[in-house]
Amino acid sequence: QPGTAQPGTDPARDAALANAVGAVVDPELRRPLGEVGMLRAAAAAGSAAQVLIALPAPDWPATLALQDAVRAAAIAVDGITDVAVELGVMDEHEQATLRAQLIGDPAATAGEQPAHGHAEGRAVPFAQPGNATRVLLVASGKGGVGKSSVTVNLAVALARTGRRVAVVDADVWGFSIPRMLGVERPPVVIDQMVVPVEANGVRCISMGFFAREDQPVIWRGPMLHKALEQFLTDVYWDDPDVLLVDLPPGTGDISLSLAQFLPRSEQLVVTTPQPAAQKVAQRAAFMAGRVNLQVRAVVENMSWFCGDDGVRYDIFGSGGGAALAAELEVPLLGQVPLVPALREGGDVGRPIVVDDPGSEAAEVFFEMARLLTEEYLPTRRYSEGLQLL
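The structure assignment produced for this chain is given below.
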């Protein structure tokens, strides 16, 4: 644990130093150090300054960047040319205080909502009146249509518009978002609060952080329900503008649980041009209607392959996405071509919108992001003052 910085001979200068360093924003928490209790002390003596920082966890991933930012802020104070940054770790009480400040006590809200299985009926922040986060559930009727690829690239494209974007990998059995997004480390836990990992401008949480890639998740519905509840309540999401949820294929327990947890969400249905895939995707859309969720649009993936000769080949047929959109009376948000780079990028954690932003496929994702933020806006309105008891 860090000690106490010796006060300088000029209290006003010490205060200026503390204000400068306290305004530094921690890259992980996205909060000023002074606001979240990470600045323990700061003092100046002559041209030298000493700053004591309390990290929220021993394995804090932003440590090096934080030290550089603190030094830069301190040197910006008039007359300071040498800065010593001493690091310590918050004790259990400080960690509990920080968690309460950022997300409160999710367990204390148990019983406020209907619960199934092992879930506690906690209050989900994204379901509360007045919450401004737009939630998009990305669904498909069957596996293998590229739903996770669409989720990742659309999330990064939305982040490139300047919005704060997060992804919940709810495909508990087939989790793949961390690998596809390019995540290189596990999340950090502060007093049972999970700080999600960010990659390519998108924060995410996934069962992939809690199970090996080769480890099957053999859970029944009640355990799945509890895990999803914790993903939504025990994670420090920091009020993203958009939250995308990568659903497992089909219409099983997880989709039903999320419909209960996130009743204000909108659904994007991913299909391929193939009529068989379209008919199966239709079931996922009809399930959304049964649980009073709004289907926002259809995304057609693997729409065509463009050969070296410049000719488009409809490998999986054509028209499936447009037919499904017409049947559901929703827009066809976009048609994503079948390109090897899209698959390769998912394997190595380089989404095509990052690796080749000028490609045909990337431009489709950027256009879909534009449509979702400028034209296909939420049509249901919720007021914080309208709550039925």
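Interim note for the steering committee: The longest strand covers residues 48-55. The CA atoms of residues 263 and 292 lie 8 Å apart.
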